[in-house]
Protein 1
Amino acid sequence: MTQKRIKTYDRIVAESLTLFNEQGERSISTNHIAAHLGISPGNLYYHFRNKEEIVHQIFLQYRRFMTERLAVPSERELTVDDLVNYLDTAFQAMWRFRFMFYDLPGLLARNPLLQNEYHQFVNSELKNILGNHFRAFIQLGLLKMDDDDIESITINIWLVVKFWFAFEQTAHPKAVITEAAGRRGVKQVLTLLKPYVQPPFIPAFAELRSRYGD
């Protein structure tokens, strides 16, 4: 019984994420989710009291994805390749959980618990993670910037990453947007960082950017 409950719980979260990404969170109700899964609404409500609880669980998945995959390794020093690996990871997260960022203000307004935890994550956890990245790359000698500039630059990068797929949809309204569009986002972020790259790393940095050509 416990195994069946866990399986149904996980299926609800996974399939809800798929539906939200494909059709938008606002257009999907708990009845839609139950019908998609082939279960009764009562079965769904046994696991989740409402749609907001499902969205909250998806957000927790997103937060774990970001914190685990973007953590600065403690057992080794960073390399230049880590820069694009981290950017790839960030855009992968935005694609996997993209529905959250198409109408983020509305989503947060409808879900007070999510609102509190999202702001705590962005203003504390994520801010520290990105700041640690920059300090590690500065220590490596890859980048040079004043410590006071780190926060402003991380905000600029976060804005590009967070809204990239929404931007792609508005810039190319007739095109089908896929995860591959994130490669253009990576190149855009690398362009933001280019002025801060130090001379010894310019050839390696140029090679990185060439991997994300049009």
Protein 2
Amino acid sequence: MTKQTATIGSSTYQRIKHDIIFGVLEPGSKLKLEALKERYSTSNSTLRETLNRLTSDGFVEAPEQRGFRVTPVSREDLIEITELRVLLECHALEQSIENGDTDWEGNLVAAHHKLHLMEQKLLAGDNSDVELWKRYDWEFHQALIAACNSKNLLALHSTIFDKYLRYQMLVLTYRGDVAVAEHRAMFDAALARDTQKARDILEAHIRNGLSHTLEAM
């Protein structure tokens, strides 16, 4: 595969995955090649490769080789995804706090600052840029675990986080001051190198998000 072809394939993958996560392509909907080819301006071969990759990652299904469809959602699936996120992210956080240097601290400070400013806009009633809010939320959680020193762990966490995010976007709600306080407490505990406290707050944060989403569903 040439570098240009690989770049096109990656771009198509990111665009379709984005549209699945943010609900543009609805859960359970059929993914017809001709419609996708026109929508994403790409070839059949790139689409098939992309859809197969998304199937491997769990965002798309190919039931008995009868075409492709967006993976459906369910309460049971969300609970399983949440348990995996707790397992992966809490472990990565422990390792990151242990290994983190001053660069890690600086990146974490910057990530929390951006998220906190966005949260203040949300608390003020400005919901005009939901995607940016979720991007800053992702960047903060990523900054917390970035020093875990495991590319495989970070890659697995990224996929699970995106699956968790898809459910949040389907029933988009905001937990307000509670979520803001949890983020601040995680941030403070991580900088203080209080591993157990940071882990406990993170687990509670994820599980509170689960309860909130299940109620909204």
Protein 3
Amino acid sequence: MNTINKTNTMCLKKLFPILFLLLTFNFYGQNDKSKDDNFKEKREQIKAMKVAFLTTELDLTSSEAEKFWPIYNTFDDKQFELRHQKMKGIFKRMQDSELDKMSEKEAAALLNQIQDNEEDLFNLRKKFISNLKGILPSVKIIKFKKAEEDFGRKLLQQYKDKGAKK
């Protein structure tokens, strides 16, 4: 039974970023100004829910919170830029009509861009964790990572529940 839970957790960990990206880029695919405003509003709502969730889960002291939140907000903004802004152009080139016309050389270049972006994300997270080590005990950093995973699952479940009601 424990193996099944680990497998489900691993699948969720892999699926959540993909689902989130797909949902996010669905908003980007349309040029309607109200869609952009709607996306920004939803992003802010999710961000507020995440901050509240992390605050509850981490139980930071006032001193820890004072140091944690500026580092986290900077990290979150940079992560958003890498995941969404930079990938936006890449995803546009990955449309079916574009893929069919793409040469092997163009595909290799696009793949390199994707890999570079993934490496940038990895390095950003690595630096973030390193910065946290200076302000939080290791146990709280692990709690943070768990809280992020839990929040992702909660958000995904809310999305599933909302979709089931339609």
Protein 4
Amino acid sequence: MLVLFDFDGTLVDSEYLWAQATVEVLAEEEMEMTIEDFSSSYAGMRHEEIIPKLEEEFERGIPHDIVQRVEDRAMLKIEKVEALAGAHEMLDQLDYARCICSNSSSEDLETNMRRTDLWDRFRPYVYSSIEVGTKAPKPDPNVFLHAATILDVDPKDCIVIEDSFHGTQAGVSAGMRVIGFIGGGHTYPGHGEHLMDAGAQTVVRRLADLPATIEALKNWHDE
């Protein structure tokens, strides 16, 4: 069996920092949005995909430099990013093969994984959706299917850990089972239900609960 982890918002609390940076920059353009609203609609998506949707939502154009402004502000915040509580202890208990499948670039992944002492726990099995396979980001299943192919595991024997609606959709589309994670700083009212609507089979709030939940899903599948 293979366990495929998203990274931002699942193992480290960076999704909240990206949302915070985005909301702050949007406010400078008099486009008001709460972190909860941004996270519920756009968590897990790349900013190149988010901008057209925001323009449609606010019915106005957005300055061409806004993506760079968000990235610059987020990078300052992420310099202090930490692994989520229980991440290392959870990985100590996990006996199955594992990998990272993210929409972030491989460069950003390595930087932030080294900052949080997670790099050596996954390398070289760290995959950026925009750099592998068809290069299609989530919600396309590309990165999950690529990882399963490289590691020679049938998708039905894969369990995805995801915190976002679009990432959950990608895992389901790949023919994998998905556990939704709702313990990051960007979680919002209805987060768990949102992930279940996208196809997650269950949700957990604490990383410490993942090993037992994975085992239960595996045993249920084996039966």
